[in-house]
């Protein structure tokens, strides 16, 4: 995210609910990111917490953030209630995918040409572990994105933003279908590490 909070709130015509003007230029799973929810720009943790236990001791481990929700899994227990009742917009200027040989992968950045900021579909909920958290919806890749990865975020045209946040689950399922977006693709020399997984900016 290369824009500040006031710019993003203005572009989405919502209140700026953040106490700061700067947004993190890169967002990683398990860390705060910006979302549009309930008519305001808000900060939430990227990823729904997945409870884990040690195989050796059976003791609870630190939860793992599940940062992506597959569109073909939205009826599962983890996602269903949020998909039906708490949908949000995730503002981005770009997202990254891994490309190259395993162990030597680098980040390739994808964005919408001629768009200052665009929105992808998200869902959110309150969690005991981290408070408000969100996950990004992923569909089958199409168009330029399919050359990089087999899945991609669900990008929403501006005229569909209110449909996504306010429509019924039945009505909005059509928005989850893959679309052959024309994208700007920017390979980089930045190494891809585990914590980079689907980072955004």
Characterize the structure shown.
By secondary structure, the chain is mostly beta strands. It has a domain at 5-50 and 60-93 and 117-140 and 150-178: hypothetical protein yedk fold (Alpha-Beta Complex). The protein contains four helices and 14 strands. It has helices spanning 5-12, 80-85, 161-166, 169-172, and strands at 15-16, 32-37, 40-46, 48-53, 60-66, 68-70, 87-92, 95-99, 106-111, 118-127, 131-140, 151-153, 155-156, 184-191. The strands form three sheets. Strands 1, 2, 3, 6, 7, 10, 11, 12 and 13 form a nine-stranded mixed β-sheet that branches. A three-stranded antiparallel β-sheet has the order 8-9-14, with no helix packed on it. It has a two-stranded antiparallel sheet with strand order 4-5. The protein is globular and about 55 Å long.
Q: Any key phrases for this structure?
A:
12% helix; hypothetical protein yedk fold; nine-stranded mixed beta sheet; mainly beta; single chain; 201 residues; three-stranded antiparallel beta sheet; 4 helices; globular; 14 strands
How is this structure best summarized?
The chain is mainly β. The chain is built from 4 helices and 14 strands.
How would the blueprint of this fold be written?
Elements: H1 5-12, E1 15-16, E2 32-37, E3 40-46, E4 48-53, E5 60-66, E6 68-70, H2 80-85, E7 87-92, E8 95-99, E9 106-111, E10 118-127, E11 131-140, E12 151-153, E13 155-156, H3 161-166, H4 169-172, E14 184-191
Parallel strand pairs: 1-3, 3-11, 6-11
Antiparallel strand pairs: 2-3, 4-5, 7-10, 8-9, 9-14, 10-11, 10-13, 11-12
